[in-house]
Amino acid sequence: METPLIEFRNVSKRFGDRTILDNVNAKIYEGDVTTIIGKSGGGKSVFLKHIIGLLSPTEGNILFRGRSVDKMSKREWEAFRSQFSYCFQNNALFDSLTVFENIALPLQQTTKLSKKEIHSRVMDKVDQLDLSEVPHKYPSQLSGGMQKRVALARALVTDPSIVFFDEPSTGQDPIRKNAILSLIVQNQKKFGFTTIMISHDVPDVFFISDRILVLYEKQIVFQGTYHELDQFEHPMVDEFVKSLEGIWDELTGLRSKNSFMKLYEDVREKARHESIIVATFALDDMDRLSEELGYTQAQGIMQGLGECVNRHFGDAGISTRIARNQIATILQCPDLSKAELVLDDFARKLQDKELDDIEGDGHTETDSLRFHSFSVSVGLAEANAGEDIQVAAKRAGSRTKRVMMSMLKGLSKP
After folding, report:
1. Half-sphere exposure (CA, 13 Å, Cβ side) for 203?
2. In CATH, 6-245 is 3.40.50.300
3. pLDDT per residue as tens digits for the range 56-114
4. 51, 110, 198, 414 — which has fewest CB within 10 A?
5. Which residues 6+ apart lie within 8 Å of 155 measured at CB?
6. In what order do the strands lie in the sheet with 6-15?
7. How far, in Å, CA of 150 to CA of 135, rounded?
């Protein structure tokens, strides 16, 4: 059995008579994106501060790679902590430093890179997080959302092994929120660091999470995947998770997964002995698009795809986002042959530039323009009576046709 990177064993934390964590048991694995969710003021930040050594347990043990922190030498502990990087909820930016200087600070303090190398790495993160207009400005001159992006850029600039994020996308609009989450997960994939995140951005954060930990009533009551959380029966699921998720997905304007599943269960009940037609629409190679166009523009395309699906199938289907780049739709069609005709019509409209409303974003008359190609994979399958929607969607996703698209992207002149 794999040894957890970080493990809490019967950890409790009290401040005087007030108990914040009560006999907490939790496991975090190396290379995963682990998200911790829970009510505001429920102890999530206290949990995180125990991991990074800002707080010590009143009772219990914390282990790193199977070894108790209490038994580590000071040198071992400092070596382990040197792999950490942080992005806190209050951003912790220095008001007396510019944006560039704030982002560069970890490199100046912990590396021996030249000024030229530091400048290059800082500007790379500036570009990725859409901060190119503000490197010379001070934090007090920025909006709260932009300050959050500066803090995120600083957390990623050292290419750390373990990164802690405290509400990294809070206060952002749906496109930029998903752009920030995409930036986190794509960097995590590229460099292999372990991500530990606190977030309220349900369900967006679930799409990038390998594991979810739910802190409820001072204890970790759930550890597992998003799919397992959907199956988990606990008052917390209805009281907290589903209430946060709401009825609509903010990015695409489609049904939230929870709302979709209720309707899917109704459809499945009415068609007990009949198959249900499921279509999927996936934006291909989203990581490449994010790198070429920028994270915000890539999420804008995903938003546009959701709007197109909603326009085309709104009265004849039920749709939701089931992955970071994928939408599922239940079609009201009698059989696959009829559904194929419906999808062919949708594919033609996509190729006829139904995504035009987002294709011109980001350029002005003084910009140079470049064509970028991308594709949407359209899949179709029959869901058997009683079959889980994820299983049917996976089967539909394996039988796809590609709809090739192109768009103009403005590139600022040097």
Report:
1. 27
2. yes
3. 999 999 999 999 998 898 888 888 888 889 887 678 899 999 999 999 999 999 889 99
4. 414
5. 85, 86, 87, 163, 165
6. 18-28, 6-15, 59-64, 67-68
7. 9
